[in-house]
Amino acid sequence: MTGQPPVHEPTTRRRQFLGRLSLPERTFITDALRTETVGGVLLLGAAVIALVWANVWPHAYESMLDYTVGPSAPLHLDLSLAAWAKDGLLTIFFFVAGIELKREFVAGELRTPSAAVLPVIAAVCGVALPAILYAVVNSGSGGHPGGWAIPTATDIAFALGVLAVVGSHLPSALRAFLLTLAVVDDLIAILIIAVFYSSGIKFWALGLAFAGLVLFWFLHRRGVHGWYLFVPLALVTWALMHESGIHATVAGVAMGLMLRCHREGDEQHSPGEHIEHLVRPLSAGLAVPVFALFSAGVTISGPALREVFTQAAPIGIVLGLLVGKSVGIFGGTWLMARFTRAELNPQLKWADMVAVSVLAGIGFTVSLLISELAFPDDPTLAARAKTAVLVGSLLCATVATLLLKLRNRHYRALCEEEDRDLDGDGVPDVYQQDDPAWRARTAEPARSLPEEASGGSGGSGASGTPGDSATGR
Asked: What kind and span of H or E run contains 335?
């Protein structure tokens, strides 16, 4: 019967994936990524300096790395500059990562299971598949299975530095996904380091370090303020953690996770947000670039590059970063989106997720760290692993740049739409379109234009349009 209207079955509303962020979340993400982008450019610069230094003046570079400073008693802190960068400066980086993780669980994308499942599964798959690929490549007699964790990390600063250098734009939803992915990735990385790359545990030092963390938590929860209390306590706790045999960066993550990241009363910012705002520039602008300066200096030559593509360990690292991370992150995201019936933001395509997944294959800072931890007794193999990390990250950056450039015009339009503020009130228009007062404010300038044009014609009542004057109507 053609006269009857069609009957529509009731449908369940599908949750949108990579949808528009809330305004507070977008503001936080924008501020955080702005600092990380500057840090990423500095990181790229430091890596280039390290490579030039190590290849042009290799003896001077090695002497700098091996220069020892620090007291030998009571906690054996007479460390080389390279060790201070690896164990000391990176603790600041992981401290910020701990705060980021805590905030994501409290107020960010990970606060609800439905929102957290996609980036968490993507991060887990992006860690598991590279490790599996590396293990398969190194399963033979000439392999080195101990380096399985090297290609599992994502370097958000390096990725954003690449975006800044090549001039690519990314909508805030994709940037937020990349940041959330990197935060979960950092957590997995520090767990891997703590469990698999710690040895010779000294329980007395570990117990005292734990006591220091408890005191840190107690003072913070009691509302005690003052850097002159917390900074010395953090340094002592770090030194004890270093002495215990557990990698010292674990202390940084633990202290970051202990900070309160939710607001109470009339607070404008939680203590965690405030401290992160203070420490993030130190991490992105100093700690990570200096670590890169001390770690990225490897010999680049024909034989060295040939070894990257002919020996099992370097091949496993390159494949893990370029193929494992990309396929793992995209595959995990796509499968979970289908499984949870999440609907992709209609302004984006799954090809955009492919590009972001390849970009997330850039594993620089943590991958360089794990290269040193995985092969402590074989400097030559560690150097080959670092070269493979650089090659794999460069390949990922190149492929991601090509993919992003194909959609860069579309991304630019989305970013302009997100940032448009016609009434100049500091709030993007996309967050006010349903407000009648905003529509009235933005409509007033448009209505005033015909009136001004009419007034300019001498009040004759003519419409004042060029077409009318030209035709004499």
From this structure: helix 326-339
Looking at every residue in the chain, the average pLDDT score rounds to 82
Q: What angle do CA 370, 87, 292 make, to 5 degrees?
A: 65
Tokens of 4: 């009857």
Q: How far apart are CA 367 and CA 44, in angstroms?
A: 15
pLDDT (0 to 100) of residue 10: 43
Query: Going by C-beta distance under 8 Å and a sequence separation of 6 or more, which residues neighbour residue 355?
Result: 400, 403, 404, 407
What is the rounded CA–CA span in Å between residue 309 and residue 305? 7
pLDDT tens sequence across 393-406 = 999 999 999 998 88
Residues 354 and 242: their CA atoms lie apart, in Å, by 39
pLDDT of the residue at 444:
59
DSSP string, 159-205: HHHHHHHHT----HHHHHHHHHHHHHHHHHHHHHHHHHS--S--HHH
Predicted pLDDT at 408: 83
Is 294 within 8 Å of 86 (Cβ atoms)? Answer: yes
Is residue 167 scored above 90 in pLDDT? no
Q: Which of 9, 65, 18 is nearest to 379 (CA)?
A: 65
Q: What are the backbone dihedrals phi and psi of residue 16, each rounded to the nearest 5 degrees, phi first?
A: -85, 135
Q: Is 374 in contact with 192 (CB distance < 8 Å)?
A: no
Dihedral pair phi/psi, residue 198, rounded to 5°: -120, 140
Number of H helices, E strands in the chain: 21, 4
Sign of CA dihedral 464, 465, 469, 473: negative
Which candidate, 145, 107, 255, 265, places its Cα nearest to that of 190?
255
Question: In one letter, which amino acid is 352?
Answer: D
Strand pairing class (68-69; 79-80): antiparallel
Tokens of 390: 């650089």
pLDDT at 169 over 60: yes
Query: What pLDDT is attached to residue 158?
Result: 82
pLDDT value of position 196: 87
